[in-house]
Protein backbone atom coordinates (compact mmCIF):
# COMPACT_ATOMS: atom_id res chain seq x y z
CA UNK A 1 0.00 0.00 0.00
CA UNK A 2 1.20 3.50 -0.82
CA UNK A 3 1.66 5.88 2.09
CA UNK A 4 1.58 9.44 0.69
CA UNK A 5 2.81 10.87 3.98
CA UNK A 6 6.18 9.14 3.89
CA UNK A 7 9.14 11.34 2.90
CA UNK A 8 9.89 10.94 -0.79
CA UNK A 9 6.54 9.30 -1.55
CA UNK A 10 5.91 9.17 -5.32
CA UNK A 11 2.31 10.38 -4.89
CA UNK A 12 0.91 13.53 -3.33
CA UNK A 13 -2.37 14.59 -1.80
CA UNK A 14 -3.84 17.54 -3.69
CA UNK A 15 -6.03 20.30 -2.23
CA UNK A 16 -9.14 18.33 -3.28
CA UNK A 17 -8.10 15.51 -0.93
CA UNK A 18 -7.37 12.94 -3.66
CA UNK A 19 -4.05 11.27 -4.39
CA UNK A 20 -2.25 12.10 -7.62
CA UNK A 21 0.96 11.01 -9.26
CA UNK A 22 3.30 12.98 -11.48
CA UNK A 23 4.76 10.72 -14.17
CA UNK A 24 8.09 12.52 -13.84
CA UNK A 25 8.06 12.16 -10.04
CA UNK A 26 7.20 15.07 -7.76
CA UNK A 27 8.86 18.13 -9.26
CA UNK A 28 8.92 21.83 -8.56
CA UNK A 29 6.08 22.42 -11.02
CA UNK A 30 3.92 19.45 -10.00
CA UNK A 31 1.41 21.43 -7.93
CA UNK A 32 1.28 24.20 -10.54
CA UNK A 33 0.55 21.62 -13.20
CA UNK A 34 -2.10 20.02 -11.00
CA UNK A 35 -3.86 23.36 -10.57
CA UNK A 36 -3.84 23.94 -14.32
CA UNK A 37 -5.32 20.49 -15.01
CA UNK A 38 -7.73 19.94 -12.12
CA UNK A 39 -8.49 23.16 -10.28
CA UNK A 40 -12.20 23.88 -10.94
CA UNK A 41 -11.56 27.51 -11.88
CA UNK A 42 -8.84 26.54 -14.36
CA UNK A 43 -11.01 23.78 -15.82
CA UNK A 44 -13.91 26.18 -16.41
CA UNK A 45 -11.58 28.74 -17.96
CA UNK A 46 -10.13 26.14 -20.31
CA UNK A 47 -13.62 25.00 -21.32
CA UNK A 48 -14.56 28.57 -22.23
CA UNK A 49 -11.41 28.99 -24.30
CA UNK A 50 -11.96 25.71 -26.14
CA UNK A 51 -15.55 26.71 -26.86
CA UNK A 52 -14.72 30.13 -28.29
CA UNK A 53 -11.55 29.35 -30.25
CA UNK A 54 -13.27 28.04 -33.42
CA UNK A 55 -15.52 31.11 -33.64
CA UNK A 56 -12.61 33.45 -32.97
CA UNK A 57 -10.50 31.73 -35.63
CA UNK A 58 -13.31 32.03 -38.16
CA UNK A 59 -13.84 35.73 -37.41
CA UNK A 60 -10.13 36.53 -37.63
CA UNK A 61 -9.79 34.50 -40.82
CA UNK A 62 -12.75 36.29 -42.37
CA UNK A 63 -11.46 39.73 -41.42
CA UNK A 64 -7.96 39.06 -42.75
CA UNK A 65 -9.23 37.31 -45.87
CA UNK A 66 -11.79 40.03 -46.50
CA UNK A 67 -9.17 42.76 -46.15
CA UNK A 68 -6.94 41.00 -48.66
CA UNK A 69 -9.91 40.48 -50.96
CA UNK A 70 -10.71 44.20 -50.98
CA UNK A 71 -7.22 44.90 -52.30
CA UNK A 72 -6.77 41.95 -54.65
CA UNK A 73 -10.24 41.57 -56.19
CA UNK A 74 -10.26 44.89 -58.12
CA UNK A 75 -6.94 43.90 -59.69
CA UNK A 76 -8.34 40.55 -60.78
CA UNK A 77 -11.67 42.01 -61.95
CA UNK A 78 -10.64 45.20 -63.81
CA UNK A 79 -13.76 45.30 -65.96
CA UNK A 80 -16.22 45.27 -63.07
CA UNK A 81 -17.43 48.09 -60.89
CA UNK A 82 -14.87 48.67 -58.14
CA UNK A 83 -17.42 48.45 -55.32
CA UNK A 84 -18.78 45.16 -56.68
CA UNK A 85 -15.25 43.80 -57.04
CA UNK A 86 -14.40 44.79 -53.48
CA UNK A 87 -17.58 43.21 -52.13
CA UNK A 88 -16.80 40.03 -54.05
CA UNK A 89 -13.28 40.12 -52.64
CA UNK A 90 -14.58 40.39 -49.09
CA UNK A 91 -16.93 37.44 -49.52
CA UNK A 92 -14.53 35.18 -51.38
CA UNK A 93 -11.35 36.20 -49.57
CA UNK A 94 -12.99 35.94 -46.17
CA UNK A 95 -14.35 32.50 -46.95
CA UNK A 96 -11.03 31.27 -48.32
CA UNK A 97 -9.28 32.00 -45.02
CA UNK A 98 -12.11 31.61 -42.52
CA UNK A 99 -13.08 28.03 -43.36
CA UNK A 100 -9.54 26.57 -43.22
CA UNK A 101 -8.86 28.51 -40.00
CA UNK A 102 -12.00 27.03 -38.46
CA UNK A 103 -11.01 23.47 -39.38
CA UNK A 104 -7.42 23.91 -38.20
CA UNK A 105 -8.48 25.15 -34.77
CA UNK A 106 -11.36 22.69 -34.41
CA UNK A 107 -9.04 19.82 -35.32
CA UNK A 108 -6.41 20.65 -32.72
CA UNK A 109 -6.13 18.39 -29.72
CA UNK A 110 -6.78 20.82 -26.88
CA UNK A 111 -6.98 18.23 -24.15
CA UNK A 112 -4.59 18.83 -21.28
CA UNK A 113 -1.55 16.62 -20.94
CA UNK A 114 -1.71 13.61 -18.63
CA UNK A 115 1.55 14.02 -16.77
CA UNK A 116 -0.37 14.34 -13.50
CA UNK A 117 -3.23 11.87 -12.98
CA UNK A 118 -5.48 10.61 -10.20
CA UNK A 119 -4.30 7.44 -8.47
CA UNK A 120 -7.25 5.00 -8.29
CA UNK A 121 -7.99 3.33 -4.96
CA UNK A 122 -6.95 -0.06 -6.36
CA UNK A 123 -3.48 1.26 -7.09
CA UNK A 124 -3.18 2.95 -3.69
CA UNK A 125 -4.08 -0.30 -1.95
CA UNK A 126 -2.06 -2.72 -4.09
CA UNK A 127 1.04 -0.86 -5.23
CA UNK A 128 4.19 -1.71 -3.27
CA UNK A 129 5.58 1.09 -1.16
CA UNK A 130 8.77 1.23 -3.21
CA UNK A 131 7.00 1.61 -6.57
CA UNK A 132 8.27 4.39 -8.78
CA UNK A 133 6.16 7.33 -9.90
CA UNK A 134 6.38 6.09 -13.50
CA UNK A 135 5.01 2.66 -12.54
CA UNK A 136 2.19 4.15 -10.46
CA UNK A 137 1.33 6.49 -13.33
CA UNK A 138 1.23 3.56 -15.78
CA UNK A 139 -1.01 1.47 -13.53
CA UNK A 140 -3.27 4.44 -12.79
CA UNK A 141 -3.80 5.40 -16.43
CA UNK A 142 -4.38 1.79 -17.50
CA UNK A 143 -7.06 1.22 -14.85
CA UNK A 144 -8.70 4.62 -15.36
CA UNK A 145 -8.74 4.33 -19.16
CA UNK A 146 -10.44 0.93 -19.09
CA UNK A 147 -13.02 2.16 -16.58
CA UNK A 148 -13.73 5.18 -18.78
CA UNK A 149 -14.32 2.97 -21.83
CA UNK A 150 -16.80 0.59 -20.21
CA UNK A 151 -19.94 2.79 -20.19
CA UNK A 152 -19.87 3.55 -23.93
CA UNK A 153 -17.90 0.85 -25.74
CA UNK A 154 -20.99 -1.31 -26.17
CA UNK A 155 -22.75 1.49 -28.05
CA UNK A 156 -19.68 2.19 -30.18
CA UNK A 157 -19.40 -1.43 -31.28
CA UNK A 158 -23.11 -2.01 -31.89
CA UNK A 159 -23.73 -2.69 -35.56
CA UNK A 160 -27.16 -1.82 -36.90
CA UNK A 161 -26.30 -1.28 -40.56
CA UNK A 162 -23.35 -2.25 -42.78
CA UNK A 163 -21.86 1.28 -42.63
CA UNK A 164 -21.47 0.77 -38.86
CA UNK A 165 -18.98 -2.07 -39.34
CA UNK A 166 -15.91 0.13 -39.86
CA UNK A 167 -16.71 2.28 -36.82
CA UNK A 168 -17.30 -0.79 -34.67
CA UNK A 169 -14.03 -2.36 -35.82
CA UNK A 170 -12.07 0.77 -34.91
CA UNK A 171 -13.72 0.95 -31.49
CA UNK A 172 -13.04 -2.75 -30.85
CA UNK A 173 -9.39 -2.33 -31.80
CA UNK A 174 -9.06 0.67 -29.50
CA UNK A 175 -10.70 -1.09 -26.58
CA UNK A 176 -8.54 -4.16 -27.17
CA UNK A 177 -5.43 -2.04 -26.64
CA UNK A 178 -6.91 -0.39 -23.55
CA UNK A 179 -8.00 -3.71 -22.07
CA UNK A 180 -4.62 -5.29 -22.77
CA UNK A 181 -2.89 -2.50 -20.82
CA UNK A 182 -5.46 -2.81 -18.03
CA UNK A 183 -5.01 -6.56 -17.78
CA UNK A 184 -1.23 -6.17 -17.60
CA UNK A 185 -1.56 -3.55 -14.84
CA UNK A 186 -3.97 -5.74 -12.89
CA UNK A 187 -1.57 -8.68 -13.12
CA UNK A 188 1.35 -6.59 -11.87
CA UNK A 189 -0.73 -5.34 -8.94
CA UNK A 190 -2.20 -8.74 -8.12
CA UNK A 191 -5.72 -7.54 -8.87
CA UNK A 192 -8.37 -9.87 -10.30
CA UNK A 193 -9.04 -8.45 -13.76
CA UNK A 194 -12.61 -7.64 -14.76
CA UNK A 195 -14.04 -9.39 -17.75
CA UNK A 196 -13.90 -7.20 -20.87
CA UNK A 197 -16.93 -5.00 -21.44
CA UNK A 198 -17.39 -6.42 -24.95
CA UNK A 199 -16.49 -9.66 -26.64
CA UNK A 200 -12.85 -9.59 -27.71
CA UNK A 201 -10.68 -12.02 -29.66
CA UNK A 202 -9.63 -14.89 -27.42
CA UNK A 203 -5.98 -13.81 -27.29
CA UNK A 204 -7.00 -10.32 -26.10
CA UNK A 205 -9.49 -11.41 -23.45
CA UNK A 206 -7.19 -13.85 -21.64
3D architecture notes:
With 206 residues, the protein is mainly alpha-helical. It has two domains: 11-23 and 114-205, no CATH class; 41-106, no CATH class. 64% of the residues lie in helices and 5% in strands. It has seven helices and three strands. Strands 1-2-3 form a three-stranded antiparallel beta sheet, with helices on both faces. The longest helix has 37 residues, at 40-76.
Count of individual beta strands = 3
Query: What is the mean pLDDT?
Result: 80
Helical content band: 55-70%
Total domain units: 2
SSE order? EEHHHEHHHH
Please give the radius of gyration in angstroms.
25 Å
Which structural class fits the helix and strand makeup? mainly alpha
* Percentage of residues in DSSP E strands: under 5%
Number of H- or I-type helical stretches: 7
Straight-line N-to-C gap? 27 Å
Q: What composes the largest sheet?
A: 3 strands, antiparallel
- Indicate the multimeric state: single chain
Catalogue the unreliable spans: none
Please state the overall shape, judged from the principal axes of the Cα atoms: elongated
Strand order of the largest sheet: 1-2-3
Amino acid sequence: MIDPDLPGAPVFRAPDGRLYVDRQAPAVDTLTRWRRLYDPIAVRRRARIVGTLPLLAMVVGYVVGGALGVVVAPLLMPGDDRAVAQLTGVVVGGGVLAVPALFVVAGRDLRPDRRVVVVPDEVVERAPQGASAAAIWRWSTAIADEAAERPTIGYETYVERPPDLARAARATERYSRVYRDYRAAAAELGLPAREPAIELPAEEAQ
